[in-house]
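Hey,

The postdoc asked me to send both predictions to you directly instead of through the lab channel. I've kept everything plain text so nothing gets mangled by the mail client. Protein one:
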Amino acid sequence: QVQLIESGGGLVQAGGSLRLSCTASGYNFGGYPMGWFRQAPGKEREFVAQITWSGAMTTYADSVKNRFTISRDNPKNTVYLQMNALKPDDTAVYYCNRASARSTGGYFGVLPWGQGTQVTVSS
């Protein structure tokens, strides 16, 4: 049974930092790219960051470039998202998933979504 468990969210002031973690189980974690996605109230879920299976290459949404860093630890089946210089617009529920590229650009999540972790940035 595939499981994705996100953690590390919380309430932080603008300009602050958080580190999210996601632990996966039930599939060959180390064999696939992983991604972080987020969904703000009243909006569709959107792509945030992606990392290849080896960790050698990463891709970011323009809105988080140079502020967020995605990384992974394959022996621990865990992917991380270091978020710095947080803004109120970053407020959302954050999800991890196995990431696959869309033919039209961007990425989507392949597996059933987990519960996510809430990030709230106050101004």
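Protein two:
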Amino acid sequence: QVQLVESGGGLVQAGGSLRLSCAASGRTFSGDAMGWFRQAPGKEREFVAAIGWSRGSPYYADSVKGRFTISRDNAKNTVYLQMNSLKPEDTAVYYCVARLKNSDSVTATAWVYWGQGTQVTVSS
């Protein structure tokens, strides 16, 4: 059974940093794209970043470009999201995703596996 387990979320002041981790088990994802989404209260799930996508890697949403960095350690079957210069609008539940159904896009419906999410709260 495939599991994606996120960690590293928490409460941070604006301008601070957090590093999220997502450890995968049940299969190896070294040949697959992995990524991150987020969902704020009352909002739709939003793409954040992807790595290993054939159409661009790494690939970031405009809202996080220059502040967030996605990376992976294939030996550990783990993907990371380094988040710097955090803003209150980054507050959300952050979800790890793995394996694209096809290479056409990185929208939410394109991903096969999802983690349970980790809360990130940025105070002003």
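Summary for protein two, as requested: Residues 9 and 120 are 5 Å apart (CA to CA).

Thanks,
C.
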